[in-house]
Write a structure and sequence with these properties.
The complex is a heterodimer of chains A (559) and B (291). Chain A has 559 residues and is an alpha/beta fold. Chain A folds into 4 domains: 169 residues, Pyruvate-ferredoxin Oxidoreductase, domain 3, CATH 3.40.920.10; 174 residues, Thiamin diphosphate (ThDP)-binding fold, Pyr/PP domains (Rossmann fold); 71 residues, no CATH class; 102 residues, 3-Layer(aba) Sandwich (Rossmann fold), CATH 3.40.50. Chain A is built from 18 helices and 21 strands. In chain B, helix 1 packs across helix 6. Chain B has 10 helices and 8 strands. The chains are: A alpha/beta (559), B alpha/beta (291).
């Protein structure tokens, strides 16, 4: 089957997300690969928001813009979202706005049948399920699960509301519902970047998170707070991001794996803490969930504008690692890697995500946990005679103990220090040795970095070069271009600092694809590898990169 | 048995000769010995300034972090290892200026740590600018007309925001200060000691000026009364009260429910959830399973 795209649109507070998630979960439970993403305004009520569900038989974790079905929860959103509807697509709304559409007054029915407008959304879900031909019982199962904690009466009412909507839809369908989604064998985790990151952090042994709420990073600390009993991660809402990063460093110094999460503006406040982690050689994982800037920018939209900021964050010179996972599967693995390498090299690790990765629901068939494990690198106090926190070693890594672990004393300092952690001004000898010791760690670190993912590069004339969460869109545009006969390849970077050993094959046209206005990846790769780019396909309007967007700009640089 | 020798180290002290900070250092050592704390059981957290150097001058675990950021670091240390005796050593610039926001929120959180502020009413390490506690009218390196804004009253702020142990010490009276530190460290919950520490290099008044003005709170003062304590905080100028100004009942300390659940063990000793548990958790994302 060709992928089906269902868009639910409405105002904030109207239930766009609830309707969307219920439908997405139902379709996923029926064995389809679902990809769901949302775009919304930075407000709690009103505005115009949408939740899009892409349905297919194979995993395609990338957004489609054109809709087969548009479910409008109010009339106001029709004008904005109807242009997305494909020719032959079906509009569902509460009023008859045109001849060829399905009009079902969810709110009136809710009022009539249940004396409560709250059931309008469940009726709408039932209608949508009927239109796309999904099994009613599957929907009922999901609803029963969703409302379980609200008691049997609420469950019953929701089940009959869904059934009502479903029946009405099938009566009204005529030739407007050509779709049928019978149960399939497929089995997927339907999971967001935020959820995968949080679970991976707990798996990696994270014990403490401090953060200040900032979209789109807030979901991580919220997840830990909600599952404290099960995951055992202490979550503290800090008074500001400066406190958050320092709390995490305190916990980490005291031996607990710790993290923080923020977005661009909050990260700006944390930067002195990044430097502190570098100087004190304290492991730290920071998730930097990007949204468009500068300043407050677009709080609820997506972008990739902090690449160079993250890489350069922190005064002074010290090793750090910057990772940018592409999807929840990759994010799970990268978070474990982040904690393990932060521990091994005793340094800050920044994990760059964005609103699109954090909030979208991706289909993952298997997380392949395999050999993945928390690799704790603390030293054994029994084997140490005289402990020196900053013992000079060839690879720059000193044995790390935590205070109270044994009788050995652990002293760390933000001033330049000697091997014991005491302030020093011994410039020629100690200071020089300490600078060199810290930087020596980069050599080992570089060997841990994976090269970019290469697809069809050898045969390609033109190579699209991307990073982070745009992988799904890039894979899809590659397929489109190949169908057209274009010799195109793809390079995708998810480990960005230090950059891996890699050489760009000669004689090809390189184009970066980025969600920022200035081509930050191009600038970085040009300076590090000396490769030149014909141009950058940029998107900086706050919406995610899609295959159609990339395709429509490809010809500007190709040929 | 712990002795003064256990706390001695051979690090060169960078303070000005004769600085009252030496008195505070001495009081700390004596207090820790009296409390029978071994150096490895103690973790000192400091920021930047002359006070912040103190943890280098006695043997213990220490985290000498950034200017103003002592309290969040100490909070992290305390959560990760509630068995450690965590002591913050900070100054008036570090704690009330750069770290003022952290001071307010630490009072609210009530972690079981001790905060000792060397209050010299001046920025000494940057050569004599005003601090948040410099009295109005006193001249400083940048405040040439005299300080024109009102000073903070950090003790009153602390009492107002629920700090259960608030005391003022004087660096010129080591024995008395030692007693305050012993009581503060023994208190369960946040304990806070502001120490008058005259700056002999840049300050307005010599140590003797303070010596003439400080007095010890006696039987007449009831430290259990918030009202009486707040009144004492307002006493400034010619008579400066020292001693325990407020001591209330212990209340729930920060993250107590969490650390209790962990058996008060250091977090690094706990086993993280294993692959099996994570896979089970993940199965909840395989839609509608088991519903």
């Amino acid at each position: 089957m060709e992928d089906l795209n269902v868009v639910i649109a409405g105002a904030a507070g109207e239930g766009v997300q609830t309707v969307g998630e219920t439908l997405a979960r139902t379709i996923s439970a029926q064995g389809y690969a679902v990809f769901a993403w949302q775009e919304y305004e930075s407000r709690i009520r009103g505005g115009q928001n949408s939740y899009s569900i892409r349905i297919g038989e194979h995993t395609q974790n990338a957004p489609l813009m054109r809709a087969d079905v548009l479910l409008a929860l109010n009339q106001g959103v029709v004008k904005k979202y109807q242009p997305l509807l494909k020719e032959g697509g079906t509009l569902i709304a509460q009023k008859q706005l045109e001849k060829r559409m399905i009009a079902i007054p969810f709110a009136d029915i809710a009022e009539e049948e249940f004396k409560n407008k709250i059931y309008a959304n469940t009726i709408a879900v039932g209608v949508a399920a009927g239109v796309i031909g999904i099994d009613l019982d599957a929907l009922k199962q999901v609803l029963a699960h969703t409302f379980k904690e609200k008691g049997a009466t609420v469950v019953e009412s929701n089940l009959s509301a869904a059934e009502l909507g479903y029946r009405r839809a099938t009566q009204e369908c005529r030739d407007l519902c050509p779709w049928k989604l019978p149960e399939r064998e497929g089995r997927y985790y339907l999971i967001s970047g935020t959820e995968a990151i949080s679970l991976a952090a707990a798996f990696a042994g994270c014990r403490f998170i401090a953060a200040y709420p900032m979209t789109p990073s807030t979901g991580i600390i919220t997840f830990f707070a909600g599952h404290e009993d099960r995951l055992g991660v202490c979550a503290e809402q800090a008074e500001d991001e400066i406190a958050a990063v320092n709390m995490a460093l305190g916990a980490s110094y005291a031996g607990a794996r710790a993290m923080t999460a923020t977005s661009g503006g909050g990260f700006a406040l944390m930067v002195e803490g990044v430097s502190l982690a570098g100087m004190t050689e304290t492991p730290l994982v920071i998730v930097l969930a990007q949204r468009p800037g500068p300043a407050t920018g677009l709080p609820t939209r997506t972008g990739q504008g902090e690449l160079l900021f993250a890489i350069h964050a922190g005064h002074g010179e010290f090793p750090k690692l910057v990772l940018a996972p592409s999807d929840p599967y990759d994010a799970f693995h990268k978070i474990v890697k982040a904690f393990n390498l932060a521990d091994k090299y005793q340094m800050p690790v920044i994990v760059l995500t964005d609103h699109f990765l954090a909030d979208s629901q991706f289909s993952v068939s298997d997380f392949d946990l395999g050999l993945l494990r928390p690799d704790i690198q603390l030293a054994d106090p029994q084997k140490i005679d005289e402990y020196k926190r900053y013992l000079l070693t060839d690879n720059g890594i000193s044995p790390r103990l935590y205070p109270g672990q044994s009788k050995h004393l652990v002293g760390v300092d933000s001033d330049e220090h000697d091997e014991q952690g005491h302030i020093t001004e011994d410039l020629g000898k100690t200071v020089k040795a300490m600078v060199e010791k810290r930087l020596a760690k980069i050599e080992g670190l570089r060997e841990e970095i994976s090269p970019p993912e290469e697809i069809s590069v050898d045969d390609a004339d033109t190579v699209l070069v991307g990073w982070g969460s745009s992988r799904g869109a890039l894979l899809e545009v590659m397929r489109l271009l190949k169908q057209e006969g274009t010799k195109v390849g793809m390079l995708h970077f998810t480990e960005l600092w230090p950059l891996p050993e890699f050489s760009f094959p000669k004689g090809k046209t390189y184009i970066t694809v980025e969600s920022n206005a200035t081509g930050q990846l191009a600038r970085l790769l040009r300076s590090e590898y000396g490769v030149s780019f014909k141009g950058t396909i940029s998107r900086y309007d706050g919406l995610p990169l899609t295959s159609m967007y990339i395709r429509s700009r490809f010809d500007d640089y190709h040929g | 048995m712990t002795t003064m020798d256990d706390y001695r180290n051979n690090v060169e002290i960078q303070w000005c000769p004769g600085c009252p900070n030496f008195g505070i250092l001495q009081a700390f050592k004596k207090a820790l010995v009296e409390l029978k704390k071994a150096p490895h059981e103690v973790c000192m957290v400091s920021g930047i300034g002359q006070a912040a150097k103190l943890p280098h001058y006695l043997k213990c675990n220490f985290f000498n972090g950034l200017h103003g950021r002592t309290l969040p670091v100490a909070l992290g240390v305390h959560v990760a290892n509630p068995q450690l005796t965590t002591i913050v050593v900070t100054g008036d610039g570090d704690c009330y200026g750069e770290g003022g926001n952290h001071f307010l929120h630490t009072l609210r959180r009530n972690p079981d740590i001790t905060v000792v502020v060397h209050n010299n009413e001046i920025y000494a390490l940057t050569k004599g600018q005003a601090s948040p506690t410099t009295p109005r009218g006193e001249k400083r390196a940048l405040q040439l007309r005299g300080v024109e804004v009102a000073p903070l009253n950090p003790l009153a702020i602390a009492i107002h925001h629920g700090c259960g142990f608030v005391a003022r010490g004087f660096a010129g009276d080591v024995e008395h200060l030692k007693g305050l530190l012993v009581e503060a460290i023994s208190y369960r919950g946040l304990s806070y000691v502001d120490v008058i520490q005259p700056c002999i290099t840049w300050g307005t008044h010599p140590v003797s000026w303070y010596q003439e003005r400080v007095y010890k709170l006696g039987e007449a003062h009831d430290p259990g009364s918030r009202e009486a304590a707040l009144e004492k905080c307002m006493e400034q100028g010619d008579k400066i009260p020292t001693g325990v100004i407020y001591k209330g009942p212990s209340r729930e300390v920060f993250a107590e429910k969490f650390t209790n659940a962990a058996g008060k063990r250091p977090l690094p000793e706990l086993q993280p959830p294993g692959q099996h548990e994570i896979l089970e958790f993940l199965s909840g994302f395989q839609a509608a399973e088991g519903s």
